[in-house]
Design goal:
The protein is built from 14 helices and 14 strands. By secondary structure, it is α/β, with parallel strands linked by helices. The chain folds into two domains: 286 residues, Aminopeptidase (3-Layer(aba) Sandwich), CATH 3.40.630; 144 residues, Glucose Oxidase, domain 1 (3-Layer(bba) Sandwich). Strand 5, helix 6 and strand 6 form a beta-alpha-beta unit. It is elongated, with a radius of gyration of 25 Å. The chain starts with 23 loop residues before the first helix and ends in an 8-residue tail after the last helix.
Length: 529
């Protein structure tokens, strides 16, 4: 993927950090200044220019906006200097300790998550924020078993990941022949009943390629064709983790495997009978869990700048990169923002600063339920007041990439652009990363993190991440170092996602991305809707 181009016509904003290059946006700003000069000369001869009081009144909004932008620049530079991995590491250590004393994880609905929420909320309240614990009920889940073994013609184990909210197999698993679902002309597989018409799936394990529809839709269509289980394999390199999104959606036991394993199984089953045993079992129970919402006591309630990360882990491990890293980045930035006087509302020249709201979401790992609940509870008027939402999920992957959500869809990958204003958010983050001497690449809004509900509500969204189970390419290795052909995070959703799974360089840079954005947008949201 290439570095996303800047949004045409967007205003240039000086961002903090050394070594800023004169890029396309800076050149565009110079050109705009040159074109505007004759207009300014004409305006000087107008009656308003001749009347100082009229000119002062006319320029008041512009002066306030300029003052807000200047104050945002000042505050952003201060925050970037003060905020980074060094300060945030104490939060990672605290969350690791909480997991260690809470059955090894911090999953939503667990003791570990409850303590994590109290830890963050207590610090935020002490810093002067108005803190709300937004509780709601959901179905808690834990993996009891996830195993797949090819039993004939040659026995071997195939690594499989249970899809959350799946139906469970009996203890010991379900054994049956493997039946690959054919691929449609559009590249999708197993999404409708027609996809199963050409084969016999009754009493078999349906092998289905990812893509074209949700995992829930795939397993439902397979069940309707008579399949006793569904195994979905990835359409890109790396293992496949997924969710059915809702316990009511689970119809048959469903798991995910890698593209490599899926392609091999499909080829083998296409030339002769292959049987397999799949054991996928999950514990489910209704529980309550809180989002932690902290906002500045002052600021313009009609202009809300919002920043968030999910605080919950999976039940398989402590979730230090996924996503204590993003939560620690948000928490440390919020504390430094308060310490730097950021919660004071005055922006100069009568300008009131924007209200800043931080969110630490729960239940992201089981279908973005925390963010979904929050957005669903907003009135139309409350939604309209949120100028932007920036999301930070996995910002310290050990074999990291530097990815920024593709707000303008310049990469043309998958889901299309975000709502109006998302392109500006992308451009601002890319500019900052470049000012630190690094290069970024675009990331599709693929719906895998908490920006999803905000995009659906029409709110400008963006953020950065460092990669999960995806595989680093040779080109990316040239850009960022690390190991080509290996996952960005080899401990993704595993017990080994602990303090040893953090790349401090990536962690520090992405925390500064958060700090820079909070400083600017707390004072000036620019031309965002």
């Amino acid at each position: 993927m290439h570095v996303p181009p800047r949004t045409a016509g967007s205003p240039a904003r000086p961002l903090s950090g050394p070594g800023r290059r004169l890029g396309r946006r800076s050149l565009a700003a110079l050109a705009a200044t040159a074109l505007a000069t004759p207009l300014l000369l004409t305006a000087a001869a107008s009656p308003a220019a001749a009347d100082p009081s009229a000119a002062a009144k006319a320029s008041a909004p512009g002066a306030a906006k300029a003052a807000a932008s200047k104050e945002g620049d000042r505050l952003a530079k201060k925050l970037v200097r003060r905020t980074g991995a060094k300060g945030a590491m104490k939060h990672l250590k605290a969350l690791q300790a909480i997991a260690r004393h809470s059955d090894g994880h911090r999953a939503a609905g667990s003791k570990g998550h409850e303590l994590s929420a109290k830890y963050a909320g207590t610090l935020l309240k002490a810093a002067g924020y108005e803190v709300t614990y937004q509780n709601f009920d959901f179905i808690y889940r834990e993996t009891l078993a996830e195993k797949m073994t090819v039993t004939s013609p040659d026995e071997r184990d195939v690594p499989v990941k249970l899809m959350t909210y799946t139906k469970s197999t009996p203890e010991g698993g379900t054994e049956a022949a493997v039946a690959p679902a054919p691929e449609d002309e559009d590249g999708s597989s197993g999404c409708t009943a027609d996809d199963y018409a050409s084969g016999d799936f009754d009493g078999r394990i349906a092998l289905i390629q990812r893509g074209g529809c949700t995992f829930a839709e795939k397993q439902k269509a397979a069940a309707e064709a008579g399949a006793v289980a569904a195994v979905i394999y990835n359409n890109t390199d790396g293992e496949l983790n997924g969710t059915l999104g809702d316990p009511a959606a689970g119809v048959i036991p469903t798991g995910g495997i890698s593209k490599e394993d899926g392609d091999a199984l499909a080829a083998e089953a296409g030339s002769g009978e292959v049987t397999a045993n799949v054991e996928l079992r999950e514990f489910q129970e209704e529980r309550s869990t809180p989002n932690v919402i902290a906002e500045t006591p002052g600021g313009d309630e009609n202009r809300v700048a919002m920043f968030g990360a999910h605080l919950d882990s999976v039940s398989e491990g402590p979730g230090i990169n996924d996503n204590a890293s993003g939560s620690a980045g948000i928490l440390e930035t919020a504390l430094q923002f308060a310490a730097a006087g950021g919660t004071r509302t005055g922006g100069g020249h009568g300008h009131e600063g924007n209200k800043v709201r931080f969110a630490l979401w729960t239940a992201e790992e089981v279908g973005l339920q925390g963010a979904e609940h929050y957005v669903s509870e907003l009135s139309d008027a409350e939604r309209d007041k949120i100028a932007l939402y920036l999301n930070f999920d996995m910002i310290a992957s050990p074999n990291y990439g530097l990815f920024v959500y593709d707000g303008d869809d310049s990469d043309g990958e998958g889901s299309g652009p975000g709502p109006e204003g998302s392109a500006q958010l992308e451009s601002d983050i890319v500019d900052f990363i470049e000012s630190r001497g690094e290069e970024a690449r675009g990331a599709d809004f693929d719906g895998r993190s908490d920006y999803g509900p905000f995009i659906e509500a029409g709110i400008a969204a963006g953020g950065s991440k460092t990669g999960a189970e995806g595989i680093k390419s040779a080109e990316e290795q040239e850009l960022w170092g690390g190991e080509a052909g290996a996952a960005y995070d080899g401990c993704y959703h595993q017990k080994c996602d602990d303090l040893g799974n953090i790349n401090k360089k990536a962690f520090d840079l992405n925390i500064k991305v958060i700090a820079n954005a909070v400083g600017h947008y707390s004072r000036d949201v620019g031309d965002l809707p």
